[in-house]
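Box 3.1 A note on notation
Throughout this textbook, protein chains are presented in two layers. The first layer is the amino acid sequence; the second is a token string describing backbone geometry. Keep the layers aligned when reading.
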Amino acid sequence: MALRLLQKNEKKISMRFGKSIAKILLPLLYKIFSFLKINRRAINFFSEKSFFSNDNHDFFNFISSLLKEKKIIALDVGAQGGFNSDYFTPKKYDQFFEPILIEPIKEEAEKLKKKNKKVISNALWSSEVKKKIFILGNRLGSSSMYEPDPNLFSLHGIKKKDYLNYAVTDNVEVQCDTLSQSIKNLNINNLDYLKVDTQGAELEILKGIGDFRPLLIKIETHLHTMYKNVPSWNTLLDYLYKLNYTVVDWKGIGSHATRVPAEMDLILIPNFNNNAGNEIINNNEDKFVALMLIFRQINLLKIISNKNNFKSSSQINDLDDFFFN
């Protein structure tokens, strides 16, 4: 106990010293960066480092002890390149997941089937229907059920010489089913993690979620879309809140002529401030803790853990959240 108190006091002293030094150095650094015209680049660099700062932890053994033989059931909608292909979370944690991959572009689905057990090659929508995908052959990851609008390209910093990269090269009709029915067809009754990145179709896909309530959702939303008739981002967010989810993190994607990113990856969890949200969390405590660690949400996890008397609370409380340093 005495040793722990001593360590805490030493930490407080070092933090005070660090803040004092920062007050002196930061204004000087700002002037230097501004003079060199790299101010925005420096801010983006430090912001990126801060976002991923909790990756300095190694939660592998902790998560292993929580899950034992259990796997986190994950649905990856828009899975071109494979599960966690954007390296949003450290790859070392991928083995804790049992991924189900959704990829409606036939050639890409075939690639995924060579490495993954569960690949669904139909598309998802709010109902069972046939839809067209606008294929961007020069930029396959930007293919969408919504047509690109060249009138919006300049706002995204796309140069005219690069417009052809965003040209529609093919229209493919695909069979769509709902998210809930697609999972039930695999005889899966619970979904722990949902990731949706479908270039504007996120809202229609969520409308087919049925009774499934994942412990964590990662979803892309367009603040400023480059596609025609994509639902506004606030409509998507409103729908998620009606499902009793709340945003706990976001990360900007892409540049735009405004001062906000063109898109964002949103991280949401069940609303921990009401009984319905806490019931979902408490019924899957170990998987929830594992997901929160993997997605770097340490401070919030401490509060939820103590509030709900998690069995791993003492171990969680010993963790530092480097994001807030």
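The two ends are 24 Å apart (CA to CA). The chain has two domains: 1-51, 58-120+188-324.
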